[in-house]
# Entry
Amino acid sequence: MSDLATDREIDRSKMQVSDEVAIEINKMNKWYGTFHVLRDIDLTVYRGERIVIAGPSGSGKSTLIRCINRLEEHQEGQIIVDGTELTSDLKNIDKIRSEVGMCFQHFNLFPHLTILENCTLAPIWVRKVPKKEAEATAMHFLEKVKIPDQANKYPGQLSGGQQQRVAIARSLCMKPRIMLFDEPTSALDPEMIKEVLDTMIELAEEGMTMLCVTHEMGFARQVANRVIFMDAGQIVEQNEPEEFFNNPKSERTKLFLSQILGH
Amino acid sequence: MSNLHADTVAFVRDTMLPQKEPPASTVGLLGWGKKNLFTGPFNTIVTILCTAFIAYVLWMLIPWFFSPTWNATSLGECREMLTAAGKVGEHGTSGACWGVIRERWIQLLFGFYPAELYWRPILAFVLLAPALAPVLFSDKVPGKLLIFSAIYPFLFPWLLWGGTIWSPICAALGFVILYAVVKYGSEAIGQLGAIIAAVVAALVWWLFLSGYVQDGLAAVIPLAIEPVASRDFGGMMLSITIGVVAIACSLPLGIVLALGRQSDLLIVKSLCVGFIEFIRGVPLITLLFVASTLLNIFLPPGTNFDIILRVIIMATLFSAAYMAEVIRGGLAALPKGQYEGADSLGLDYWQAQRLIIMPQALKISIPGIVSTFIGLFKDTTLVSVIGLLDPLGLSNSIRADQAWNGIVWELYMFIAALFFLFCFGMSRYSMYLERKLQTGHR
Ligand SMILES: Nc1ncnc2c1ncn2[C@@H]1O[C@H](COP(=O)(O)OP(=O)(O)OP(=O)(O)O)[C@@H](O)[C@H]1O
Ligand SMILES: [Mg+2]
# Structure
């Protein structure tokens, strides 16, 4: 694993953390049946933050970010996204989902639709944007992720890295204010990881609020403003990347870092 | 490789090899035969045995098939013709008696439908093509034809059964009411409430009001074509009518049942499971008997509930249960990620189902769906058991005729050929559809 996500200088002019709260999680608990998977999670994310969530397998990282857009239901505590609390009210859930973009490990593109249709589907049906306008927006974002020429192909005809960039473009077409990433690069070959990370870095440079579950520590070092370490369903440690990597406090963090960084 | 090593490990090619023709024994007819028919002794023996068998069957069949009996008017006459032609074997004359087909083919197609009105079923089935085209070949046919597809379900029964033009219009009005209540009621009482209210309103219209309105309108503006009673329906026309309607209705019903079976709502789920398991556990023929006899006991006396309609309902329910299971298989084959992808974009349940889940699940299930269709179409022959005159029912009555008493093969072959035509068509279409919907490489 290379130590850096990119060789170029990162433009930090728009990467500003405001004091406006984007996501607030209070004493949140979640169980799968009787298994207590998330325990007393407290987390406040400010607009413009780039947070990387790390931790060993099975620690509940995916579950945590999936709770934020209600792909999983929490049983106790509060999750407030953009001022709307997540309850079982379907209206709230749909509202939050259309404001929060999500990228998955396995892309989850719709294989029966072209790339362009993948990108225009939600704007047309959820946001009720006219088709022409939705297509223009989609092409704009496809250009941004550097695959406008693939617009009329099907996902199955693209490489993994290209598919993940389409998935990012698809989320962006909904003009989300927050982006969630669940191990977006861990199903990819090394040379494709870089192109996806580049896209994510550009997104960060534009000031997007991002929560990323990832094992790319180079990305965490260069882009994140905060790294959260989870273990056994709890937030064990969080800090600025510099401090987190150079001066971890908890024994679990030290162990994890020594394993993942290989020294 | 080995002598390469003997010389030296390093190797540089200095002349590039030109492209060569493949060996003659691997291309062309010879190559094809060698690869497909004569690979190894076992394959060769199988090929020879099969060829011999096919040749033997054809040898026996072809003389029987080509027999000069087209103009015969009775089985006896057939035998005379065959004797005259010298086609006499050890067991008497041998040869098909095609006279029965010449004399009765029209009846096998139309039953006892009045001959002067044949144009109506013919027109109805011809119009089926433009009505189906925008559905079956959506990429090659202008979408505007869909309007005709929407009108067709009302036009079709009117052409077949005849009667006043107001009855299909009133039936269609029920759907207009359904749509209007859902559309304008959703804001007032929420989506679920509006759907329930719409169904109730439409049922009230169909069951109680539309009859009066229809009679009233018919009295004022008497636009009607000659009515034909259900008992005059028969032959292939009857099979196709039952088959087409039941096929068209069982797919949507099957989808609803499959979704209901996956529902989180316990009541909905148990109802769907109960229905599917019950219907699948009962032979179609018992359902048809229920349709023909038992239903009369439950219906209020004096109600006139058309027998063909009853059979269609039973056939629809029967194949919908199978359809639901086929579609459930398709749903189960979809990765969970597809649901999550749709959810994460903010699509609601029905949008996700309609735009993401169903297109893929149905595509996966195409072979199963078409098999169910074909099964249903062939099962329509069972209606002969409850006295409807489908081709098989007619063949019995034809064989009961003095002139044709003793005919077996010719009639069944003809009927089989008719059914094969339709079923083979459906099967070919499903292959076309699978190829068309193939996206991505794999
Ligand atoms: N649907 C489920 N039902 C029951 N248990 C589950 C379910 N999903 C996850 N779990 C369990 O919850 C725990 C946390 O899972 P989660 O997927 O959040 O881990 P993770 O930190 O994302 O791990 P990884 O790095 O392997 O993705 C695991 O022990 C897992 O076995
Ligand atoms: Mg995970």
The longest strand of chain A covers residues 21-32. The mean pLDDT of chain A is 89. Residues 59 and 232 of chain A are 5 Å apart (CA to CA). The interface with chain B takes residues 69-71, 90, 94-95, 97-98, 100-102, 104, 106-112, 121-122, 125-126, 154-157, 170-171, 174 of chain A (CB under 8 Å).
